[in-house]
Amino acid sequence: MRNIADKLNPKVVAMTLAITGGIIYIVCALLFIVSPVGALKLFKDMFHGIDITQIGKTNITFGSAVAGFVEIIILALIVGWLFAIIYNKMLKKGK
After folding, report:
1. CA dist 82 to 1, 9, 10, 62, Å?
2. How do residues 7-54 score in pLDDT, each as one tens digit?
3. What share of the chain is helix, strand, coil (3-state, %, to 5)?
4. 1 pLDDT higher than 60
5. Contact 44, 51 (CB under 8 A)
6. 42 sits in which H/E element
7. Which of the 8 DSSP states describes residue 5?
8. Sequence-separated contacts (24+) of 28-31 with Cβ below 8 Å
9. Could you tell me the CA-to-CA distances from 34 to 12, 80, 94 in Å, in that order?
């Protein structure tokens, strides 16, 4: 039998995902600062050999990095909130 403790708090899930996404974004940005070519190779390996060097940029501006960071945070907030809402609804249906 499920209880109220099984439910997820949408605000907490959204903030957790936003913080996690922000950290990952910063690590990714640092990789590009340290080694742009190496970062593109790493992502090529991660994406099953898709050559992203044709579409990736190695000269990212500070402004575009900040805009990307804000976009990731907003997207993560929405996805985290939506995930928790759907999870709670599915949990309710599963009773």
Report:
1. 24, 11, 7, 30
2. 999 999 999 999 999 999 999 999 888 988 888 888 888 888 888 777
3. 80, 0, 20
4. no
5. yes
6. helix 36-46
7. G
8. 29/60, 29/65, 29/68, 29/69
9. 33, 30, 48
